[in-house]
Structure formats: structure tokens, C-alpha cells
Amino acid sequence: MSVAKTKPEADGANAAAEWQPKIVAFCCNWCSYAGADLAGTSRLQYPPTVRIVRVPCSGRVNPRFLIRALQRGADGVLVAGCHPGDCHYSTGNYFARRRFLLARRFIEYLGLEPDRLWVKWISGSEGNKFADVVREMSAAVAKLGPNRKVREAR
Amino acid sequence: MRVYSYYPGCSLEGTAKEYDYSLRALAPLLGMQLVEIHDWSCCGSSAAHATSHRLALALAARNLNLAADMPGGARDILVPCAMCYNRLKVTSAELAADSGLRSAVESDLGDKWRGAAITAKALPEVLLGDIGVDAVAQAVVQPLEGLRVASYYGCLLVRPPEYTGFDDPESPKSMDELVRATGATPVDWPHKVECCGGGLSITNRELVAGLVADILGAARDAGADVIVTACPMCQANLDTRQGLAGKTRGTDFGLPVLYITQLLGLACGLSAASLSFQSHLVSVAPLLEKVRQLGRARQAAGGEGC
Amino acid sequence: MPRIGVFVCWCGSNIAATVDIGQVTEAAAEMPHVVCVEDNKYTCSEPGQASIRQAIAQHGLDRVVVAACSPRMHENTFRKTISAAGLNPYLLEIANIREQCSWVHADRVAATAKAIDLVRMAVAKVAQHSALTSSTSPVTRRAMVIGGGIAGIQAALDIADAGHEVVVVERSPTLGGHMAQLDKTFPTLDCSACILTPKMVEVVQHPKITLYAYSEVEKVDGYVGSFKVTVRRKARSVDESKCTGCGACWEKCPVKVKSEFDLGLGTRKAIYVPFPQAVPAKATIDREHCIYYLRGRCRICERFCEAKAIVFDQQDEIINVEVGAIVVATGFQQFDQAAYGEYGYGEYPDVITGLEFERLVNASGPTEGKIKRPSDGKVPETVVFIKCVGSRDEHKGVPYCSRTCCMYTAKHAILTREKIHGSKVFIFYMDVRTPGKGYEEFYRRASEEDGARYLRGRVSRVYPKGGKMVVLGEDTLLGRKVIVEADLVVLASGMIAQPDAQEMARKLGVSYDQHGFLTEAHPKLRPVETNTAGIFLAGACQGPKDIPDTVAQACAAASKAAALLNREALEAEAMIACVDEARCSGCLWCEPVCPYKAISAKTISERVGRRTLTRSVAEVNPSLCHGCGACTVACRDSALNLLGFTNQQILAEVEAVCP
Amino acid sequence: MKALVLPASGAPGFAAEVSRLAGTDVQACYACGKCSAGCPVSASMDYQPHQIIRLVQLDQKDEVLSASAFWLCASCVTCSVRCPREVKLAQVMDALREISRRSGVAAGQPRIAAFYGSFLDLVRSGGRLHELGMTAMYKLRSRDLFGDIDLGVKLMLRGKLKLIPGRIKGRHHVAGIFRRVREHEAGEGGKR
Ligand SMILES: Cc1cc2nc3c(=O)[nH]c(=O)nc-3n(C[C@H](O)[C@H](O)[C@H](O)COP(=O)(O)OP(=O)(O)OC[C@H]3O[C@@H](n4cnc5c(N)ncnc54)[C@H](O)[C@@H]3O)c2cc1C
Ligand SMILES: Cc1cc2nc3c(=O)[nH]c(=O)nc-3n(C[C@H](O)[C@H](O)[C@H](O)COP(=O)(O)OP(=O)(O)OC[C@H]3O[C@@H](n4cnc5c(N)ncnc54)[C@H](O)[C@@H]3O)c2cc1C
Ligand code: SF4
Ligand code: SF4
Ligand code: SF4
Ligand code: SF4
Ligand code: SF4
Ligand code: SF4
Ligand code: SF4
Ligand code: SF4
């Protein structure tokens, strides 16, 4: 059924040519999710590579979520929140910032490319930036290639 | 025929005599009769107003009084020179506003102030406001189509606007409209009201040459074939200092500087001689040649088309 | 087993043109727990909503996924829809297939695949949803105002006029704050006392207002709608209920000390009221200077007090007040000039501050309104004002602009020129900042009509020379050094936070900036609220501001407080953190993470075997929690979860994307 | 540059005098510099126009009058029409020239003073300006003997310089005006 088409393994022959990375994005409700919505209302086009998980605040994103996504074969993980100082809950994104530095180290430790994890501050008025980030990240992750390591290990 | 009192001013007797000649030749073609103010004297521009406020007012007031005394009654004065125009306007306004100043000037004059009813008008003001751009266009017999003209207003024709007031002080349009009436194309350029340093032309040559070079450069960048002015000081300055200005920039501007009356005269079919082109320092000959060629081309095109 | 219904929206052609709705519904039908899939042209329209309600009834749905536009658009709409059909409104999930899919992708195949993924994520998440209810709490219909300057006065009067009780706590013996010390006030030059004293009197006379002057807030507990405040009423040594303010005591008291109110330019007695119009008009004994307290004898005041109001052995009194809302209006203090040795403040008496100048020009001040030099009482001919002293100076002061000193210096210049005929006024400035209505005009008046000469540049040094104060500055407009020989030098000192502002902030659980000013929840959208619900800010405690801005902010804070007190009960956020007490180790790592101080420890008792053990666990106050989720990440024992965004739900979504 | 000593180095009333003579309030200037930014000759001035007005505001008469800036001012009025505070700076420049001439302070730009002097002398004697005569007189006064000689020749060749000065009938009236204004100014100067 149609769902299978999105799985690179399923498409055998064309896989190499058509492969597009799959990115899980954690977006805070107040800024980055709103920014992604704005990209939509402004009809900005970006690659269909991201799947957004809405969270109240980037401070809600547990590093375990990121690791889990990578373990399950996501090719990249994006955490996007309000700009420092603009957090809806005043301090959430400061915590987030610190955590993700550590998370990158951990990913490296697991033997994955740390560049599969991106952290970006995108405000509700930065629809453009959201689209740009998705474009850039898709290209960068595409360069890294599919996240085979953990999937194969699984 | 509209009748005007005519105040030529000192420059039009000397360095700007071609302005005087061309205006006198043009006037009847546009339905104007000019009656020179009897025994007029210096208006008190530059040196006087720069050094003595009261002297400047009194000198101008004397001429306004003479205009009021003209046989045939008080009429508007046509003042071709922008400096004189400015002095007469300022004087009328200041004396109207300040009775103390008025009595001071009366004592300097040794005479009563009678100029209240007199209005001094600049040439573009008269041509656009009284004669009308349509009448000007109708008088054109030799359209200057294809000629690109930069109108240069200088400082005093439009400033200060509370006294002059017939055109926008930062982006004037009146001469451009006259230019358009001749069939020529007025160019849009940024230096229409930049000062050329006229008053310092004799005393501070190098300074003035720089200002003149900026103005000429801007006109050339805008693609102008010729500059027109309505101010003797501007014309003299841009014309006589063009050589020095060119030298400071290592170039030859070769931009003739005409009085607006000369351009209008050309379009209205007046001869080069009656317009005194020979007295310009920057040769007008190439320009006249271009006008002739444009005319020929037009005739040729007209022959085919219509 | 959950029974999930999926409703896929066309949004006319907005979605349907890019996403193959048929494929999406087919795929959705295959997803776990999905028992019904429908598609609608316009789901948010009344027929669309009706079809959801119908399906809920028909298929016995207990969870709903709407695949449509952004939840930011219609989440509330559909919550109401399912609620109308008898479902808990939180048993809903939205798959955003418009803003984040059909509108940003052109490739139909890829967009359809993504839409299916998004629906799968929503289905996986909603399967984990549970019904949520928000708690409610009652509101104590009383407000407290801390600080009795113009901000506190205005806020108290407005809340009281709205019909609620107000308790005002002022730490000094009188209301009025800094405004009481001012002479005339810009930009209208009306006399400060004339507009302030009637308001002070109104406060004590208002039937709804209780004033605790000479009192301080010790402790604040509770939360929005139900704060419990402990107030210490400091001992005045005078029975307020008896004192009539007649003044017999301070007339006779033999001890003279420098008056704080007059900033040391005048004197008061050991028993005193700070200024004649003080409210409440009750005497206070300054125990640090009273001879009786120092040496055990005197009691002259007692002898002369006919009202028998003096109580030497009066003790501090602790009272507890319950309030639903708090307005903080504790104001500012002047920057301490001691940092500027080069200006010689404190060393040379003829270098004074702007506030001291206010006392000098004030008709009820120590010089009865005559501007005289403190050194020799001479009337100054040349007065120099130096602006931005302490402000905009990272080295010796604070980086920010104090916002009032440009204007009050212009005012001082006008007053000087008005009061001293032929005087010369020079003002050194860096910028002149006059953004209020009529302010620029006021400043122009000082420089044009009143002849104040503004010199652009900072002063480097002030030193005495032959009876004059030499002021050494620069006129940066001329690029020239300027030396002014002045008789009096006035420093426009900046406004800084109260010395105990941070302590106060901690008591209240509100945040403060690096300069000690209390911070608003959002500078533009929630300028008088704090991050702690039910606590509002007014006046200079939030940042330097003048009286018009202070009063405007006080009115705003009052209306916010009154609106809160008007509510019957408060409904708390439903998606909040909750503690799994079985897992919680009581480490309280979560506590400092919470920006709203919603987490505290509580003791629980459990039966372990036959014994009952007590231990400490974290507790989330549902009235305080805003649902940010920060605490959940801090907890290493996974004891904290965020309802509506639980770890399980988020992981379910992740796994739905990467099957 | 020397420090300004305030208020000592000021001449009390100077700012007011300039304001009166110029018909504009110099204290209105808030030193934005727009005048200097647009002034065509500011690059050649020793003080920028806004600095001149600043010194006037502070009554720095001696320093102002020793400046050459106001002599260089071309009276183009650009500053006045653009000033946000409606300061008529061009008139301030006129006023300064007038005060300078009257008080006999050595002009910072003797050539310009000489030029104006020559101009006025001719108007006084003939009633109108006679450009050739003026040029000659100016050359003598300013000792700027060789500058522009070829230009003069060119102009003469083109008939632009009138050789014989015209004289108007009313020249005695004009001379009278000069005399009365000077007498008045002298009287005023005495009063000051
Ligand atoms: C020299 C000078 C001149 C000025 N001139 C003008 C002018 O002309 N026009 C104008 O609009 N503005 C002027 N201002 C600004 C004006 O003073 C302030 O805008 C105004 O005073 C702010 O009022 P407030 O109530 O916020 O603070 P404050 O006036 O500081 O009042 C705060 C009050 O809270 C009390 N308090 C503090 N901490 C506590 C606590 N912990 N518990 C209980 N009570 C506490 C204090 O005792 C005080 O009574 C001037 C300021 C200065 C320095
Ligand atoms: C270029 C620029 C940048 C700015 N940047 C910032 C910034 O970065 N930060 C900041 O804090 N502020 C900024 N501001 C200021 C900010 O725009 C204003 O403070 C704010 O818009 C004022 O809001 P308002 O509601 O009072 O007025 P407005 O935004 O003007 O709204 C008035 C509304 O009333 C309507 N209306 C008018 N008359 C009538 C009538 N008779 N009947 C019915 N309706 C009517 C109008 O249509 C309009 O919708 C900026 C302003 C400008 C010009
Ligand atoms: S629910 Fe959203 S997507 Fe559907 S019709 Fe309404 S606005 Fe469009
Ligand atoms: S304490 Fe007694 S004497 Fe003093 S003011 Fe009060 S009533 Fe009067
Ligand atoms: S007892 Fe204290 S307050 Fe009373 S009069 Fe004596 S010194 Fe003053
Ligand atoms: S208000 Fe004026 S004086 Fe005060 S700090 Fe700001 S700029 Fe300086
Ligand atoms: S909830 Fe977690 S972090 Fe908080 S006290 Fe319990 S175990 Fe510690
Ligand atoms: S979810 Fe946020 S507001 Fe609620 S208790 Fe946790 S940290 Fe505090
Ligand atoms: S433009 Fe006007 S206000 Fe600005 S500096 Fe010049 S004179 Fe002063
Ligand atoms: S009038 Fe004088 S000062 Fe003003 S812009 Fe022109 S040249 Fe400069």
C-alpha cells in the first residue's frame, strides 16, 4: 500500500536515485511550529522531508526522544524553539540549549554523525527561516546518506 | 499683449546681455510687452544684502517705488534675473510684514514706501502662470524633439519658498514644463537646485570650480545635451568656469549653458544672431548643428509618415 | 481498546489539490484502532462538524483525529465539537496536512505520503490520550498593594473603586514615595504635592482600603487567587489609633537629626512625621536616635502628648493577610553618586543630586523654595547640570537610560531661570531623550524660552576654585573643551532598583533582570503581569519611568487585578505536569527548573510491608503550572510527565514516523 | 584648540543681537548638522555652519567674527530651507558679515570683503554695477592681480564686459541711501 512507498528499502531499484532523508522535527508550539505554519500560509516550498512533532516548548524535548528517533532510523533530527530570550515560558529554551550540546556529544559517542542533529531558533514570524532550515538540513543530511548504522544494527 | 514693467538688473547690461537680448526678442512672440523701469538702479543683491540688511532693503525698495511710479500705472514687474527677483520679493515681504522696518527703510530712502501693490515675478513664473504653457507651445515653429535638456534652477529662483513660492524648492518643475513645450525632453537629474557658488566665482575660483564640476557632471550623467537656466549668475558661472571645472576633473564637459529664453527663442524660430549665442564661452555651435540635424531627420521622417 | 475516528479534510482544493485524499483515507483505515474514516469538503463548517458528532455516536468513537489545517487554527473548534458529542475535549489530535503539507509541497506523491505519515503520528498519539480536566480554585476577593508611592496609591484606589478590598503595605512611615519629594512635575509643571496629597488622603479614607504604613512584607505563600501574605508592622512607639498628629511631641523633642525626606539638607526630630502632609499623619519614634532608647531617659514627648499615644514598649506586630492578587509597586532608589569621585559629590557641598535640587526648590523644603548653595547659602548665578550620571555608563553605573532625567533636568533648568533672575544654566548631555507627549516641546522651552545652554558631551571633572566649582567638559559639536565656572552643580542621577528588590522578587516568586528591576511577562503583550499568575507590576519597580507612565501602568495593573478578582473561580491549565509518586525519589532536581515555582516538596506516607514510611516527593501545584514541560526532562527517574504531551505520546509519534 | 570658558569668554547679548539682525532665533538650533550636510561650500569653511551657530548660541563673538566661514557662505539659502528648526541660517551668515564689517574685525576672507567693497563702491557712485570696473577695483584691493586675466579677455572679446560705465540719473539718490544707512549703522554701533 501507499505507505510503503515512503520507505526507501521498499523501492529497491530506484532507492538510490529517489532517496530522500527523513527528518523528525520537534517544534515548540509558540514559535517554531508557528513559523512552520507561516511558511505554509506564505506557500513557501521546501522538501517533503520533515515530520513535525509539536511540543509546548523546546524545554520539553527530552534528549531521549532524539536518540529514539535516530535509533528508529530517522536520518536527521531537528529541534526548533523560540529565540533565546523569547521563550513563551521565559527560560525553557535556555535549558534546551544546554541539553542539546550534550546530546550531540552523545550521538557522536554512539558512532553517529553529530550533524544529524540540528538545533535552530525560529520565531513565529520566520516562515522563511523555517523553509530555509529545512532545505539546508535536507541537503546536509542527504550528503551524510541514509542512517543505516543503527537500522542495520537493529 | 500683456504689459509688464521690466527690471533687467545690472547683470543683463553686462555679462548676461544675451539674456536681455533674447528675452526682448522673444517677448512679442509670446504676447508680452516689456516696459523698462525708468532709471532703475542696482537691486542690492549679493554684496549689499550680504553686508547690510538695511542697505539691501533700501536699494530694492527704490526700484519697487520706481515701478509704482511708472506711467501707465503700477504693473507686475518681470524680473529675469533670479538674484534681483529674489531681492525684490524678499524686500516686498519683509516691508509688508514689519512696520518698524518699513519706517526705517523710508528714512533711508528719504521717501515713502509705495511698492506694496507691486509684484515681482520671475520669468518661468510669468511664462507658466500668465502666458501659459499652451501659448508657449503654440509659438514653437521649430520643435526641438530629440534634444535632452537639463533645467538648472540654482538657488535663488525657488528659495526661500515662503517668498518665491511659484515652484517646489527641492524639486522644481516649471522650466522643465517650458522645455517640454519646445518639444525637447527635460532630463530628470538630482542637481537642479544645488548651489554653483556663483557669488564666490571671482573670489574663490577653485572652490567654485568644484561645485560647477559636480553640477556639470550630474547633467552629463543624466544624458543632457544642454543646460538651461534663468539666472545670470548661474549661467555665467557654469559657462565661464566650465574650463576650470573640466581641468579639475580631467575632462571636457562641453555642455553649453543657455538661458531659457535662448532655448525658447530657438524653438520659436529666432535666429542664432538675435539670441547672441556667439557670446558664450562654451561653444553652442555643436548644439545648433544637432538641432539642425534633428530637424532634418524629422522632416525626412515626416515625409515618409504623413 | 481505543476506538479512533479519522476525519480527513479537503479544505476545498487547498488540501485536496495536492494531497490524494482517497489514498489518505485508505491508509488511515489500516491504522491501529481506527474504526472509522471520513473525508469532508470543509470539516470546520457546520455540516463537517455535524458529521464528526454523528460518527462519534454511530461508531462509539472515543478518540478523534482531524487531518486538516494547523491546530493553531481550529484545535479549539474541534475540541468544542467532540465535547458537544460527549467526549472529553482533550481526546482530540490534529494532523496538520495543510500548512505543513499541502501548502508547502507541490509533488502530489510525496505530499500524500507525508500526509499519511502525519495522520499516522496523530493516530498513534491520540491512542495514548487520556481525558483531562482542569482544576478550579476559588478566588479571595482582596488585593494587596506593596509600596505606597504614586504607583501603589493609584493601583490601590483603582482596585478599591472596582469594588474589591485592598491592603496597602508601605514600608516608610508615610505614603507618597519619591513623588512626595518633588517640587513641580514635568511636563505640565503642576505642583507635585497639589496632585499627590489628595490621593494620599483618599487612600486612608477609602472604606475598602486598609493601609499598613511602616510595615513590610515578610513572606508570601500560596498562588493566584489565594495568596497568604505575612506582614510585619514595625513598632512606631506610637499608638496609631490614638495619635492625632498634633505635633506637640516633635516640637518638644530635643533630638535633631538629618531628615531623610530632605535628603540631609534639613533636619527632623527623633519623633517625627517625614513631612507636614504625611499620610497617615501619625508620629514615629526613630529608636536609633531617641535618647530614651539610647540612654533610658527623656520621655519628653510622652509628657506633652495629650492623646497619650506614645507607647515606648510597643512591639512589632505580625499579621497574616489572604489576598487573591498582588500589585508590586516598590519603586526605585537614586543611583549612589559616590562612584563618581571626579564629580566630587559628597566632598563638595555645592555638588548635589537632582532629587536634592527638588528639595531646594520646594516651597516646603529646607530653604523654603529659595535655591541656595548648600556651602554658603548664596544664591547661585551659574548652575551646571550634568545628565546621565550613573546611567548609560557601564564602567561606573548602569548601561540603561533612566528615562526621566532628561526631562527633570529640563524642568530644573526652567525652575532655575524662573527663580534666579539673570542666572545662567548650562546642561551637559549625551542625548536629549524626550519621547513623551509634549516632552520635546518642554525641552525646547527650556532651551529656547528659558535660555538653558545645552552642551553635548560628558563632564570629565568637577573641582573647586576660588569659591566656584569648575566643570570641565567637552562640546563634541564643536570639538572643543569647555570649562564652566559654576556656583552649583546638579547631577542627574540615574534610577536604580531598590536595594532589596531581589529579595522581594524571591519572596514573591517573580523574576528580576540583571539590574534588579522586576520583569514583566512580556514587554509588549503582558507588560504589567509577571510570570507568576496573580502578581502584577506597577511603576518604577519594573524599570525607570516617570509619573505619567507610572500611573498608566498602575491603572493597567489594577484593571488586571480587578478582572482577576471578579472571577468566581480560576480554571487552571489542563495540560500540566504530574508526578508519579511511586517513581519520584524526592531529589527535587525538577524544582529549580520550573520558571513558575510550581514544584515543591510534600511528604507522603506509604505502607511498606507492615511499616508506614514517610518520604518526601515532588508536588506540582496545578494553579501555578503553565505546562511547559521543562521539569519532565530534569527528572532522571521519569517520575514527571506532562499531560497532553506525555513521554509515551511523543515517543509514539516518533515511532509512527520511523516504523 | 583653545577651551571655551563659560560663561566668561562670551560676549553677553551677542546671540540675541545676531538673532535680531538675522530675523531668526539662533537658540532654536538643536545642532543636527543638516545645514552643514547640505552646504555647498562647507568643505572649504573653517567652521561648519552648525558650529558657527553653536558658537553664536554661546555668545562667542570674538571667535565667530574671526572665522572665515560666513564670508565663504554663498548665500544659496539651502540651509534655511532645509532646517528642521526653521533657523534662517543664511540670514545669520548675512548678519555676521554685517556685524563683522561694522565692527571692523579683520575678515577671515579679505578677498571676499574686498569684492563686496568694490561692488558696493560702484553701486554707490553709479547707481548700477559696472562689472569691468568692479573687477578692476577688486583686483587692486585684493592684490589678486593675475588670477582670471585670460577669462577677462575672453569676456571682453565676446562683448560681455561693458567698457563704459553707465550712470543713472538717480545716482545721487542711491548715494544718499548709502550715506543714510551708514550713518544709521554708525549711530547704532556707537550705542553698542
Ligand atoms: C529628581 C527627580 C525628579 C523627578 N521629576 C519628575 C517629574 O517632574 N515628573 C515626573 O513625571 N516624574 C518625575 N520623576 C520620576 C518619579 O519620581 C517617578 O516616576 C515616581 O516616583 C515613580 O513612582 P513609584 O510609585 O513607582 O516609585 P516610588 O516613588 O519610589 O515609590 C515606591 C514606594 O514603595 C515603598 N517601598 C519600597 N520598597 C518597599 C517594600 N519592600 N515594602 C513596602 N514598601 C516599599 C517606598 O517606600 C515608596 O513609598 C522624578 C524623579 C527624580 C529622581
Ligand atoms: C515603522 C514602524 C515600526 C514600528 N516598530 C515597532 C516595534 O518594533 N516595536 C514596538 O513596540 N512598536 C513599534 N511600532 C509602533 C507600533 O506600531 C504602535 O505602537 C502600535 O501599532 C500602536 O497600536 P494602536 O492599536 O494604538 O494603533 P494602530 O496600530 O494604528 O491601530 C489602530 C486601528 O484602528 C483602526 N481605526 C482607526 N480609526 C478608526 C475609526 N474611526 N473607526 C474604526 N476603526 C478605526 C485602524 O484601522 C487600525 O486598525 C512601530 C511603528 C512604526 C510606524
Ligand atoms: S478545518 Fe481547516 S483545513 Fe478543513 S476546511 Fe476548515 S480551515 Fe480548511
Ligand atoms: S504622638 Fe501625641 S503629641 Fe505626637 S503627634 Fe501624636 S498625638 Fe500629637
Ligand atoms: S523620648 Fe525620644 S522621641 Fe521622645 S522627646 Fe525624648 S528623644 Fe524625642
Ligand atoms: S533620560 Fe536622559 S539624562 Fe537620563 S539617562 Fe536617559 S539620556 Fe541620560
Ligand atoms: S519528580 Fe523527579 S526530579 Fe522531581 S523530585 Fe521527583 S524524582 Fe526528583
Ligand atoms: S511543566 Fe513547566 S510550569 Fe509546570 S511544573 Fe513543570 S516546569 Fe513548572
Ligand atoms: S539645520 Fe538648523 S537646527 Fe540643524 S544644525 Fe543647522 S541651523 Fe541648527
Ligand atoms: S546659505 Fe551659506 S551657509 Fe547656507 S548652505 Fe548656502 S553657502 Fe552654506
Describe the structure.
- By secondary structure, chain A is α/β, with parallel strands linked by helices.
- Chain A has six helices and four strands, in the order H-E-H-E-H-E-H-E-H-H.
- Chain A has one domain (21-144): Lumazine/riboflavin synthase (Rossmann fold, 3-Layer(aba) Sandwich).
- Chain A has helices at 15-18, 32-41, 63-71, 92-109, 127-144, 148-153; strands at residues 23-28, 50-55, 76-81, 117-121.
- In chain A, helix 2 (32-41) links the parallel strand 1 and strand 2 (50-55).
- Chain B is built from 13 helices and eight strands.
- Chain D is 58% helix and 2% strand.
- The chains are: A alpha/beta (154), B alpha/beta (306), C alpha/beta (659), D mainly alpha (192).
- Strand 26 (480-486) of chain C pairs parallel with strand 1 of chain D.
- The structure holds flavin-adenine dinucleotide (2 copies) and iron/sulfur cluster (8 copies).
- One iron/sulfur cluster is lined by residues 29-35, 50, 53, 83-85, 87, 89 of chain D.
- One iron/sulfur cluster (SF4) is lined by residues 579, 584-590, 617-618, 634-635, 637, 639-640 of chain C.
What does this entry show, briefly?
By secondary structure, chain A is of the alpha/beta class.
Question: Any chance you could write out the topology, listing elements then pairs?
Answer:
The complex is a heterotetramer of chains A (154), B (306), C (659) and D (192).
Chain A: H1 15-18, E1 23-28, H2 32-41, E2 50-55, H3 63-71, E3 76-81, H4 92-109, E4 117-121, H5 127-144, H6 148-153
Chain B: E1 2-6, H1 17-26, E2 32-36, H2 47-51, H3 53-68, E3 77-79, H4 82-97, H5 99-109, E4 120-122, H6 123-131, H7 133-139, E5 148-152, H8 174-181, E6 185-186, H9 205-221, E7 226-229, H10 232-240, H11 242-249, E8 257-259, H12 260-267, H13 285-305
Parallel strand pairs in B: 1-2, 1-3, 3-4, 5-6, 5-7, 7-8
Chain C: E1 4-9, H1 21-29, E2 34-40, H2 46-59, E3 63-68, H3 71-84, E4 92-96, H4 98-102, H5 108-127, E5 136-138, E6 142-146, H6 150-161, E7 165-169, E8 184-185, E9 190-191, H7 192-205, E10 209-212, E11 215-223, E12 226-233, H8 248-252, E13 256-258, E14 267-269, E15 271-272, E16 284-285, H9 291-295, H10 300-304, E17 317-323, E18 325-328, E19 332-334, E20 351-353, H11 354-361, E21 382-389, H12 405-419, E22 424-429, H13 439-448, E23 453-456, E24 461-465, E25 468-475, E26 480-486, E27 488-493, E28 495-497, H14 501-508, E29 535-537, H15 547-565, E30 569-571, E31 577-579, E32 599-608, E33 611-620, H16 630-634, E34 640-642, H17 647-657
Parallel strand pairs in C: 1-2, 1-3, 3-4, 6-7, 6-18, 7-10, 18-29, 20-27, 21-22, 21-27, 22-23
Antiparallel strand pairs in C: 5-30, 8-9, 11-12, 12-17, 13-14, 15-16, 19-28, 24-25, 25-26, 31-34, 32-33
Helix pairs in contact in C: 1-5, 2-3, 5-17, 6-7, 6-15, 11-12, 12-13
